[in-house]
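Reproducibility note. Readers wishing to regenerate the assembly model reported in the main text can use the exact inputs given here. Chain order matters: entities are listed in the order in which they were concatenated for prediction.
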Amino acid sequence: SQTIHQWPATLVQPVGSPLSLECTVEGTSNPNLYWYRQAAGRGLQLLFYSVGIGQISSEVPQNLSASRPQDRQFILSSKKLLLSDSGFYLCAWSSQTGKAFFGQGTRLTVV
Amino acid sequence: DQQVKQNSPSLSVQEGRISILNCDYTNSMFDYFLWYKKYPAEGPTFLISISSIKDKNEDGRFTVFLNKSAKHLSLHIVPSQPGDSAVYFCAASAHRDDKIIFGKGTRLHILP
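Running the prediction on these inputs yields the following structure tokens for the assembly.
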């Protein structure tokens, strides 16, 4: 069966520090991978979408970037965090069924 | 530009009654629609989906209705139970292999 791992669960980082959140998927190959952010009053905002290794679509211009170095690995990064980057970050994968399956999320607080 | 809209931020329903959550979309290319349930500090979990070739899909207490001409879908939960209290997200994609766009969610409170 397929599983998705996302870590860390919580993170407190100072403004200006770098960020790296990692997500891995097991039990499937060539999944579509997503990074979403849930901020207060804004629902689930799609940040990045990837259909394959090295193929990243940025949906929202901002202080973040994403990379997919391996088929089932998706990384969310920032060189310098802003206060506005605080939120709940969710990694997800989907296949040709069209359904997305989510990780447990990372609560990021930038202080 | 919000392509998937959930205009009710919250909804309160008596236990045992029907909960109806609504969703509108603007992109006529969307042909696959999903509903997710989310508890605090957890990832959303898939509830039910519907393809644009159908107008209704039922799974236990959950039924999703799709009105393509109105670009509107709704999720019916009957009977509502205390464990149904959560945030419900409507989502859509242009085809099953395309990116999935979510709405802002509706917080459902089931009252005892």
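We highlight two features of this model. Chain B touches chain A through 23 residues (CB under 8 Å). The radius of gyration of chain B is 13 Å.
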